[in-house]
What we know:
It is a single chain. The chain is mainly α and about 70 residues long. The chain is built from three helices and no strands. The N and C termini lie far apart (about 40 Å). About 10% of the residues are buried.
Amino acid sequence: MNTRHNTALRVLEGCLERAEVSFMKEEPMEFVASELHGSVESIGSILGKIDSEEVLDVLFSSFCIGK
Length: 67
């Protein structure tokens, strides 16, 4: 694994941890979504460009973020 991948994985880990904490504290779902967006961007930096909006649509299709 190269340095760029290692850095991206650390960013991914941090984003997922913050998303989990926000979710467990029942903070607004916008906070969780923002951290998940960062996670998707980190994965994209390793694998190549992926459509983060499409991934978030799938993740949040079962509930409304605006509530």
